[in-house]
Amino acid sequence: MRNLTYKILLTKEPEGSYTATVPALPGCITYGDNVDHAISMAKEAIEVYIEHLQEKGETIPDDSETLEYSINLQTA
Q1: Average pLDDT in the 19-31 region?
Q2: Phi, psi at residue 69, to the nearest 5°?
Q3: In what order do the strands lie in the sheet containing 29-32?
Q4: How far apart are the first and last CA of the chain?
Q5: Confidence band (pLDDT; 50, 70, 90) for 1?
Q6: What is the pLDDT of residue 76?
Q7: Which residue(s) pair with 38 in the sheet?
Q8: What would the pLDDT profile of 54-75 be if each residue is shown by its tens digit?
Q9: What is the dihedral of CA 33, 22, 39, 62, to 10 degrees?
Q10: Hey, what CATH topology would domain 1-76 get?
Q11: Alpha-carbon gap, residue 54 to 48, rounded angstroms
């Protein structure tokens, strides 16, 4: 068994909940009432996604070789 690394993007929705997406796993999207709940739901969604890939004999992608950087821009 190997360690897999995934980046999770959390987006706050207008009603206050959070959408969690996993860029390395296309279509892996879930929701949570707050940040902790969204992270918990994302972990569960990742596990189910990986199980599905394993059942189909497909390669399991991850973010272990992905660099992350944020850029802040100011506009006029």
Answers
A1: 97
A2: -150, 140
A3: 9-12, 18-21, 29-32
A4: 51
A5: low
A6: 83
A7: none
A8: 999 999 999 998 988 899 999 9
A9: 170
A10: Double Stranded RNA Binding Domain (3.30.160)
A11: 10
